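note to self: dont lose this again. the chain is below, predicted strucutre after it. 605 aa total, dont forget to put it in the shared folder this time
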Amino acid sequence: MLRRLIRREEGYVLPMVLGLGMVLVLVTATALAATSSGSVKSDTEANWNAALAAAYAGIEDYTSRVENDTSYVRFGNLASPFSAASPGLTLPTGSAANPAFDVAAGGTWAVVPGSEGAAKFRYEIDTSRYPATGVIRIRSTGLVGDQTRSVIADLRQDGFSDFVYFTDFEVQDPLLTSGNDPYCANYWWNRPPQKTSGVPGYSGGSPSCSDIQFGSSDTIEGKVHSNDRLLVCGTNFLGAVTSASTTTPLYGTAGGCSAPSFPSGTTAQRVGAITMPDTNAEMKKETRSDLPGEVPDPGCLYTGPTVVKLNGDGTMTVWSPFTKKTQTTGAGTGSTPAKCGAIGTTGNTLGSTAGAKIPVLDLNLLYVQNVPTTSTDPNYTSTSTTNFGNFYCSGSGSTQGWKIAANNTTTTYAQKFPATIGSNTETVPATSTSSTPAYGCRNGDLFISGEIKGRMTAAAENYVYITGDITYDDNNEDMIGLVGQNAVWIWNPMRVNNGNYTPMLGTNRTVYASMLSVAHTIQVQNHDKATNTSRGTLTVVGSMAQKFRGPVGTTSPTGYNKNYKYDPRLTYSAPPKYLTPTSTTYGTTQIAGVPSAFSADGTPR
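---
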């Protein structure tokens, strides 16, 4: 982290008062002033100041390059000791050659545009933590006259973890509420009843798109963004609120409700839309072992329903019976590195009833995929298979369920969904359908809970279930990202007796995590069941991003009240290999002045 960097470099922190876009103006004016001065002392002072502005211009130059071409992060000069921990760096060649990467005495410098050649810069790149945190470290050195100045900055990808709450559409997931009506996937001003003509999929009648509101008991501590029109009811927003809505105001106030409150002197601000990617498949590529240039440190691939218990001591226990290969290649082969857990059905293995106890994948990720249906895939298992090792499937369609047990008749289970807790067995949620079963036997579902020590991201091709609290051993060091292609569920099992719903877990839930549902929602399971039975408060510390709004409760009351707090560390770091928006921008989190890296003749110091 940069805080550690500043202590090591014995430099000083420079507050980012002005945007880097002002650098070109500053450096041009200062450098030209230096050349026109009649005093040697004035020349030296002006050159000294202009060299710092030129160093800033170097940061701006590199930032614009990596924003325009996300693969530009692969370029740098390994001849620089600053870049030594980034073994994948190469120099651009031909027409793409960049003089700013030179580190040799008497070598080239890049010229600051508009300075008439009076101001120049070089920069060195450290991408050693980029795969894990999305952070690129740059040391930029400015040169004006005989003066050089260096600064080090951390450039971080702007992304979904910037917000405590991010939503693309402010309606409940239509897959769960209205038979997947296609017209619901429109912004408020383009969907019925606001607009009825020319809306794809709409043929008339009452709309079944359900807008979800922020309630009067909700406190949202951190930045909030929606690409849609927000619906609020006296909500207390403690951080900045932005929206891409075309409406005025940017939010609607529900009937009988008071207006929301914002930080003193502010209101919701209109900004551009932030685009969600279509899938999280790019994360699966991070488990490939045949792409050393793109994936220098592959994570772990698990197949079929997978349970992860975070043990709080730097380890986790993983149950993943269908898994055969935990890293794969594009050629259809695979391997089983020890860090991902051994394959088998007894002892400390992924398919045993005890599971495989392994170290947390620190600064890395795990990805849970559906059981492949292609016979040449190294993780293929025949579609006719219902029992596999210690894995037993039951039911069909919407009533599917599974268990990991020593045999199919025992009442002692290592893992089981729908769950049995004590003498009570969970009723399959009403949201389960034959095409989207809650607990599909071959689905890439991740079930996760516990206390993490380390930094890791866990992603799933289908659902992510948060089956208990998720907390950090050290709130200053540990971090986890959870990414579901489909819904991220706050597991809230119920049993039904004579039509009456009874919760099976205690009240209140706590989740420390950055959560992202790419195509659907983050939602409390059974949020509207067990009328007049409040589940307490759902506390989230981190960030949440989703395509559709996910309810956590109702006013009956059912479900949970919200208590969402942003993890401030996410302003300068992200969970390892976390998914980013389709349009990537970089922000400078902090910047520090350090001893100059080069003399005026280009000699490294």
